[in-house]
């Protein structure tokens, strides 16, 4: 049973994500079927590609939590999984995922509309691999129930892959922000530890041009919170890589000595 205050920000985020899709740039997402048919593992960051190419996904069941329009999960299906399930809370974005899957002739992938914290028990112990990609875990205030749901849904021995912005990025001022100094990229503007949420009303920039949007609430999570909440949920860390390049906010800090993104892999203990 999820607490009411938790549901409040999650319901508000659902409305804001659906609104962002309604404001999407013309043809946003329409290229997915063609790219799926013409390219090898499109839409996936090189760090994920390097990792998944070492996994044997043939005849496996895989899932993406917070799958958005499904482009990454549909891409991963190229590696031979027999079944894929994408979970997301935004109904209209999932509708595009289903349309794109059908247009690309991918029939073994389903898309389920749900708050991740409320994924039904029918999906427990079903998956050999669960992935989260960029900008997914930030929508959850408390990582403990989030990774509990991952552990519930993995088969024993199943793998969690998490690729995301490095939380150190939360300390760096971005171009356009008052504290950004193009001539001093060593300037740190914000704290690493940030218990209060980010509250934003500018929409989702990779889907739509800025507009006055419904409120989006997201959260900073230090690396220790990510790792500890994976461990307490009965998973064992098997890899943790950091990269000096950004995966979606700005490239001005790339190669300057900061960890800007990371990839983590863990196994559910047998
Ligand atoms: C930035 S996307 C992450 C996926 C992918 N990296 C991408 O860029 O499209 C975040 C997704 O999380 C979904 N989301 C936010 N809160 C959620 C929740 N409580 N349960 C399920 N999905 C949620 C949003 O609808 C959105 O599609």
TrEMBL record:
<dbReference type="GO" id="GO:0016740">
    <property type="term" value="F:transferase activity"/>
</dbReference>
<protein>
    <recommendedName>
        <fullName>Methyltransferase domain-containing protein</fullName>
    </recommendedName>
</protein>
<feature type="domain" description="Methyltransferase">
    <location>
        <begin position="63"/>
        <end position="158"/>
    </location>
</feature>
<dbReference type="InterPro" id="IPR041698">
    <property type="entry name" value="Methyltransf_25"/>
</dbReference>
<dbReference type="InterPro" id="IPR029063">
    <property type="entry name" value="SAM-dependent_MTases_sf"/>
</dbReference>
<dbReference type="Pfam" id="PF13649">
    <property type="entry name" value="Methyltransf_25"/>
</dbReference>
<keyword id="KW-0808">Transferase</keyword>
């Amino acid at each position: 049973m999820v607490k009411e205050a938790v549901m409040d920000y999650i319901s508000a985020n659902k409305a804001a994500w659906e609104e962002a899709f309604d404001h999407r740039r013309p043809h946003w997402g329409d290229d997915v079927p063609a790219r799926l048919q013409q390219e090898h593992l499109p839409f996936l960051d090189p760090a994920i590609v390097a990792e998944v190419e070492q996994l044997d996904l043939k005849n496996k069941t895989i899932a993406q939590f917070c799958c958005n329009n499904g482009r990454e999960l549909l891409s991963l299906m190229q590696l031979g999984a027999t079944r894929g399930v994408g979970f997301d809370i935004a109904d209209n974005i999932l509708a595009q995922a289903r349309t794109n899957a059908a247009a690309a002739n991918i029939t073994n992938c389903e898309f389920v509309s749900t708050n991740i914290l409320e994924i039904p028990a029918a999906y427990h112990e079903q998956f050999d691999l669960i992935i989260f990609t960029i900008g997914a875990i930030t929508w959850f205030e408390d990582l403990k129930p989030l990774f509990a749901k991952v552990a519930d849904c993995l088969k024993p021995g199943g793998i969690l892959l998490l690729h995301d912005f490095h939380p150190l990025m939360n300390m760096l001022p971005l171009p356009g922000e008052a504290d950004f100094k193009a001539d001093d990229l060593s300037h740190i503007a914000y704290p690493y530890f940030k218990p209060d949420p980010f509250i934003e009303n500018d929409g989702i920039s990779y889907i739509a041009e800025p507009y006055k949007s419904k409120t989006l609430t997201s959260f900073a999570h230090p690396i220790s919170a990510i790792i500890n909440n994976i461990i307490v949920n009965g998973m064992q860390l098997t890899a943790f890589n950091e990269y000096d390049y950004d995966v979606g906010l700005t490239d001005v800090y790339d190669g300057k000595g900061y960890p800007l993104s990371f990839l983590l892999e863990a196994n559910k203990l047998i």
